[in-house]
């Protein structure tokens, strides 16, 4: 799949090739700098596309660039077979979505919006999950409205996080609710009394030691309360990718030689992302997950010195004890009311009464 558009402001290309997208993105200074967000890197999107979908999707990478200005924008999308419209290249594995490159460039967004309206599947667009205050939301909404789309939004999920610039682990522990602080202290003492507990935080590089850690993680996950992964190769591949990129913080807790708790954290752009966690059922009395979370928190606060810890997807009650703030992740919708699928999608989202006011008058 390959389509190309050009005007005096720049060029837009739709491609399914990540190699091509990387080549075009190389013209952007923003793409060549250290990434600020794990879920807004072409490495993440490439891995998700390769092994993160249980049902087939067609990858649609929108690349907009201005050779004269040295600016580039890549919007990774997907088209589900048999379904109208384009969606963000995201799913249950994605805790955030965003474009890659010069996301704050209004000119590139206007180019992208025009090209989307001319795309065969551009009658409906759905991007999620998004940070409400992100440049993606501001720029995409403005550009899509400018070319004639009707815009809607919806709640995706709540997200708990910890602003922690300059915060030490010692001060962090003192700020925890007393119930959690006492639980942690008791759990650490119980584990110490066993005399056979070992806690390791793996950071890479790829190799036999990391493969054993991946096997331990997989064993813990399979023996936990968690549902089996829909794509069994996704997490092992992500661990290898994170190790190669220097993002990995994979904690494994062994008791008597047996892995009993495992957590996958990734540190990117000064933020620690708590991505996957599990413990073996039957070890609840040792609170292994609590001890492992504390150890990883000590690592990211005192060694990595991150500015934020993010518990990512979901409003689980236990997260509010470890974190301090909550924010909303949203979805952004766009409908071309001059095309049938766009009109039908808008009717479902807005309702007929609102739709009558939004529908453009005949030319």
Largest sheet: 14 strands, mixed
Mean pLDDT: 92
What's the number of helices?
13
Order of helices and strands: EEHHHEEEEHEHEHHEHHEEEHEHEHH
Word description of this protein:
With 363 residues, this protein is α+β, with helices and mostly antiparallel strands. The chain folds into two domains: 2-157 and 329-358, Aminopeptidase, CATH 3.40.630; 165-306, Gcn5-related N-acetyltransferase (GNAT) (Aminopeptidase, 3-Layer(aba) Sandwich). The chain has 13 helices and 14 strands. It has helices spanning 18-25, 29-32, 42-51, 106-118, 135-146, 169-175, 178-194, 208-222, 234-245, 288-302, 319-322, 340-350, 352-358; strands at 2-7, 10-15, 57-66, 71-80, 86-88, 100-101, 124-131, 150-163, 197-202, 248-255, 258-268, 271-279, 308-310, 325-335. Strands 1, 2, 3, 4, 5, 6, 7, 8, 9, 10, 11, 12, 13 and 14 form a 14-stranded mixed β-sheet that branches. The longest helix is centred in the middle third of the chain and has 17 residues, at 178-194. The protein is elongated, with a radius of gyration of 23 Å.
